[in-house]
């Protein structure tokens, strides 16, 4: 009997257990806010996509990519990565101040996007109540050198621990700024265009999601955007309350939303592959050891 393909991460990974959590949606919005603070990176997005008109499509495509590489087969994940690399090779951006034209697949730009995503995913999960040991947090960062490879980065040059990730942000901090493109992203995320019938939903729900994502950014991001945020301890309380509420929604209901990556993974690997962060707190969890980068 042929053994089912667990994909690039598999049920024994920290990534598998965390990425099924509903707080990933807030983490994804935080990542967009953070990514927009790198002028060269956000310029590449704004000049090569109709972000203002198709932002929802872009968000869903990003979520689909993360779901595929996390829960899909190895073949599906590799194909998704190849498609992203192929698209990026064709795209250029121009600096309006200098006239310089550059590729959006420059390693430093890909690295910024990668680190902003991984940091957002981990920080929102930790601050919303997920209990990870320091070794598990390191392993999560280390595991995502796999996703870095898929988009075209050399994994050896990608942070493999939380300490290395923090050092990376310290190094890149002088390059960050809130330019016109960043404020375009901010404006969209605060009040995205929706059908008139959905305006009440946007005002009631989405504004809270976007506000919480913004508030969870690091203090230097708030300074660059020029908009204050509550103290970190108050944001942590809001993140925990939101996480508690969202996690009360039955997972089987949440996972039925298209494209159903987790349901398909469980059908492929069996019910024992069901992602749940509680597995990370088990005394027998093999995930509690050091990450591969530390071995």
TrEMBL record:
Organism field: Streptomyces yanii
Highest taxon above the source species: Bacteria
Enzyme superclass (EC): oxidoreductase
Region span, Disordered: 268-295
EC number(s) recorded for this UniProt protein: 1.-.-.-
GO MF annotation list: oxidoreductase activity
InterPro entries: MPAB/Lcp_cat_dom
Domain ER-bound oxygenase mpaB/mpaB'/Rubber oxygenase catalytic: 16-247
Protein name: Oxygenase MpaB family protein
Cited Pfam families: MPAB_Lcp_cat
Keyword entries, A-Z: Oxidoreductase
UniProt keyword Coiled coil, yes or no: no
């Amino acid at each position: 009997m042929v053994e089912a393909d667990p994909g690039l991460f598999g049920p024994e990974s920290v990534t598998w257990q965390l990425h099924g959590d509903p707080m990933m949606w807030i983490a994804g919005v935080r990542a967009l806010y953070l990514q927009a603070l790198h002028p060269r990176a956000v310029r590449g997005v704004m000049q090569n996509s109709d972000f203002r008109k198709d932002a929802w499509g872009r968000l869903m495509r990003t979520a689909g990519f993360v779901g595929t590489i996390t829960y899909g087969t190895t073949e599906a994940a590799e194909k998704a990565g190849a498609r992203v690399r192929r698209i990026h090779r064709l795209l250029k951006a121009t600096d309006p101040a200098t006239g310089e034209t550059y590729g959006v697949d420059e390693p430093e730009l890909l690295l910024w996007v990668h680190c902003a995503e991984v940091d957002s995913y981990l920080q929102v999960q930790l601050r919303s109540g997920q209990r990870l040991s320091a070794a598990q947090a390191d392993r999560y960062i280390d595991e995502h050198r796999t996703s870095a490879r898929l988009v075209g980065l050399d994994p050896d040059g990608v942070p493999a621990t939380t300490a290395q990730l923090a050092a990376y942000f310290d190094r890149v901090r002088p390059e960050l700024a809130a330019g016109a493109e960043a404020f375009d992203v901010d404006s969209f995320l605060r009040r995205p265009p929706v059908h008139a019938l959905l305006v009440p939903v946007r005002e009631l729900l989405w504004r809270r999601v976007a506000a919480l994502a913004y508030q969870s950014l690091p203090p230097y991001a708030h300074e660059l955007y020029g908009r204050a945020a509550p103290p970190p301890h108050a944001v942590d309380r809001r993140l925990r309350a939101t996480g508690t509420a969202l996690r009360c929604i039955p997972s089987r209901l949440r996972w039925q939303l298209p494209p159903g990556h987790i349901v398909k993974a469980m059908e492929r690997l069996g019910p024992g592959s069901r992602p749940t962060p509680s597995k990370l707190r088990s005394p027998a969890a093999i995930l509690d050891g050091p990450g591969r980068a530390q071995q």
